[in-house]
Amino acid sequence: MSLVEFLAPFPTLILAMALILAIGIPRGQISFIIALCLVGWGEVAQVVRSHVLIIRHKLYVEAARAVGLSEPEILSRHVLPNLLPTLLALAALEMGGVLLLLGELGFVKIFIGGGTTYMDETRQALIHFFDVPDWGAMLGTSWRYFNVSPWLQPPLSLSPSWALTSSALGSNGL
Q: How far is it, in rounded angstroms, from Cα 26 to Cα 157?
């Protein structure tokens, strides 16, 4: 738990960026999965530990110990079934957080597959093309066109922002 407390003050976006860049963006989804798992396990560990410490002193756990059940049997019969509702609620909350973190990463041009970069000579602008559709990357590239072609701004920026917002809220059950 001291490792969790050490990593807790660091911003998840910066940690995720560092891990993804260390693993390598061209590796695709596996680098994102590893980085997001390493960044997000601390909160889950703290919540699970606190609930297990509460369940550990319940009478049914002490009765199971008195009957002679082993630790794995107590864990599988009593602790995990009582921990399941907490884990399901935590999974829904973490899913929304991971979606928003992926949106933030895409906005700062760290997205799955890495994509390619193209220099537009007419506008003297650097354009990024992404291999895998990413709502954050769509938002990150669309705001640059507001000064050049403002009529394109509402469909380019509102669609991915509404999709990202509705999926994050929908995963939380709102």
A: 26
81 has which bridge partners?
Answer: none
Using CB atoms within 10 Å of the CB of residue 36, give its burial: 0 to 12 exposed, 13 to 18 middle, 19+ buried: buried
Distance of alpha carbon 15 from alpha carbon 149, whole angstroms: 35
Q: pLDDT tens for residues 60-119? A: 999 999 999 999 999 999 999 999 999 998 988 889 888 999 889 888 888 886 777 777
CA 115/CA 3 separation, integer angstroms: 34
DSSP single-letter state for residue 117: E
Residue listed under structure tokens 């994050």: 168
Beta strand spans in 15-165 (E): 116-120, 125-129
CA atoms of 126 and 144, how far apart (whole Å) = 10
Quick one: pLDDT at residue 146? 65
* Cβ 90 vs Cβ 44: under 8 Å: yes
| Domain range summary for the chain, segments of one domain joined by + | 2-107, 116-171
pLDDT tens string 134-164? 888 888 777 666 666 666 666 666 788 888 8
Instruction: Please report, for residues 55, 81, 97, 159, the alpha-carbon distance to residue 36 in angstroms, rounded to integers and kept in the order given.
Output: 29, 26, 10, 25
Q: What's the predicted TM-score (pTM) here? A: 0.77
